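B., you asked whether I could sanity-check this one before it goes into the benchmark set. Here's the sequence:
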Amino acid sequence: MAFFETIYSWFHNFYNDVMWDTVREIISDNDELLFADSLYVVGIVTLVVSLLVAVAFYIWPINSPSFKSWKAWLVMLLLSMLINFGIGVGMGYSRVLSVNDDEEACALVLGDDYDGQALTDETGINNYLGFGLSNLFVGGIFFIICSIPLTFYNGNARFSPFRK
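And here's what the prediction gave me:
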């Protein structure tokens, strides 16, 4: 989906081109690859997690006037970002491992540089952490966007952001 590809391309500098090509598109006809269109899956999961954390803050189960301030909102934003960081690292790593087993897919990702080496040789821990960091920022953006309409829905949220 072009929407998620555009958003994740903003943070493409956190990881290398091999990782980007691996998570960005369907690179093989092999339907057994885990998360065949993984950037779309990661984006949807990130959006759902951000929405669920925002709903937990504004509606249920944390719907309390004593926890409706800027500080509480920042705590929930950081919680959402940390969860999405873990999702980015985990899903990026699982995607590389699933592509690594498919020799044709490795050749497509590495192009002219492919000489039989494993895809995991080209993507180190820094690239998984970089993809997780990009997912952290995307999750933060999604949480902020999800918070805006939920703020006006909740009467207890009069001291939270976006409502003064």
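One thing to flag: The mean pLDDT is 75. Otherwise nothing jumped out at me.
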